[in-house]
Design a protein that fits this description.
Layout: E1 4-9, H1 15-22, E2 28-34, H2 38-48, E3 52-54, H3 56-61, E4 67-70, H4 77-86, E5 90-93, H5 101-114, E6 118-120, H6 128-138, E7 145-153, H7 173-190, E8 193-201, E9 206-208, E10 218-220, E11 226-233, E12 238-244, E13 255-259, E14 262-266, E15 276-280, E16 286-288, H8 301-312, H9 320-339, E17 343-344
Parallel strand pairs: 1-2, 1-4, 2-3, 4-5, 5-6, 7-12
Antiparallel strand pairs: 7-13, 8-11, 8-17, 9-10, 11-12, 13-14, 14-15, 15-16
Helix pairs in contact: 4-5, 5-9, 6-7, 7-9
Length: 364
């Protein structure tokens, strides 16, 4: 199989693991990188042996680039991805797909018209931890899924992040920042969601940065920072979720799935491995060995899956349709809170296929 030629737009902190993994997989080859700061793109190219360091528009237009990996900040996702699709390039975007539904719909429509694929992070649900949990559910280890819970509770980013402002802007907040990991994992485990309810609040109208180099800067908060919601899945399961930048600590499980015959504890969806535990009936929880690979930091495996789909004419798992359904769910929590009513989702998606053996030969 000829490697898929990839260009990476955005050479910030998260790009390092993409350069590392996509440079190792036999099915992918990074041929260009770009950044608004051309010096940063050149430094990334030199470090990772990439032949072309370009500005974003030049990378999208470059004839050697078949797929654009979009690692820009969330509010730039739509612009870069749309430009790539309009140029006839496949595109894979860091989460979330976009920050507005209309932009995501426009992107998917353009991609369909141009005959290109859209993919989106997170791809952590393709890792060994969540795929093992998925197999347990599919094998009936906990019976019929009845419900579940998911918690991402933290105190925010201003105490440690060097530039935390965008976490509190429109398109930021705990739901759009971390929710994609949790909601994507849940859709992979249980299927699509049909109805959402939510309650949201802004606890602190401003945040003060206490980390360098912007220590002392006051940030206005433009988005809810504590979101609690309920999801009614198509299969009948009801799952509660809470994401927050207002909590100092808790002992809540990361993700738990409650079944008619037992309970499944799912590892942190922000990672690829982790510990999977099952309690069957009244027995104690038992740790289950991982049944699937990619249990280390495999960011980029979603791109690898796209490469196989593009070369083989098949579908890919971390798809634009999945990412749009996840975005629709996350936006619906705030919509529900504002309208004081349930929200029936218009988007629909099938569960992604479970991981098969086709990608493991490429495992870095």
């Amino acid at each position: 199989m000829e490697p898929l030629r990839i260009g990476i737009v955005g050479c910030g902190n998260i790009s390092g693991i993409y350069f590392q993994n996509l440079g190792k997989y036999p099915a992918t080859e990074v041929v260009a990188c770009a950044d608004l700061d051309l010096d940063r793109a050149k430094a990334a190219a030199d470090k990772n042996g990439v032949p072309n360091a370009l500005r974003p528009d030049d990378l999208i237009a470059h004839p050697d680039v078949e797929l654009v990996v979009n690692l820009t900040i969330p509010k730039a996702h739509a612009t870069v991805a749309q430009a790539a699709a309009e140029a006839g390039k496949h595109v894979y975007t860091e989460k979330p797909l976009t920050i507005e539904r209309d932009d995501a719909q426009r992107l998917l429509k353009t991609a369909k018209e141009r005959g290109v694929l859209v993919g989106c992070a997170p791809d952590t649900f393709l890792g060994g931890g969540i795929q093992t949990a998925r197999k347990l559910i599919d094998d009936g280890a906990i019976g019929e899924p009845v419900g579940g819970s998911a918690f991402m509770l933290s105190r925010g980013h201003e105490t440690w992040h060097p530039a935390p402002e965008f976490y509190y802007e429109r398109g930021g907040g705990p739901m759009l920042d971390m929710g994609p990991y949790y909601v994507t994992a849940l859709v992979n485990l249980l299927g699509g969601v049909r109805r959402v309810s939510g309650s949201t609040r802004v606890t602190y109208p401003t945040r003060t940065i206490t980390s360098d180099p912007k220590k002392g800067t006051v940030i206005p908060v433009e988005t809810p920072t504590h979101i609690v919601g309920s999801m009614d899945f198509e299969n009948g399961a009801i799952v509660q979720i809470a994401t927050s930048f207002d909590v100092y600590g808790s002992h809540e499980p990361v993700i738990a799935i409650y079944g008619s015959e037992g309970t499944l504890l799912v590892p942190d969806p922000n990672g690829f491995g982790g510990e999977v535990k099952v309690r069957r009936g009244w027995n104690a929880f038992e740790t289950v060995p991982l049944t699937h690979g990619f249990s280390e930091n495999a960011r980029g495996v979603g791109v690898l899956d796209m490469a196989h789909a593009i070369r083989g004419g098949s579908s890919h798992r971390a798809s634009g349709d999945l990412a749009y359904h996840v975005l629709d769910i996350m936006q619906a929590f705030e919509d529900s809170s504002n309208a004081n009513q349930h929200v029936l989702l218009e988007s629909m998606v099938d569960r992604p296929e479970a991981m098969g053996p086709e990608l493991y030969a490429d495992q870095a």
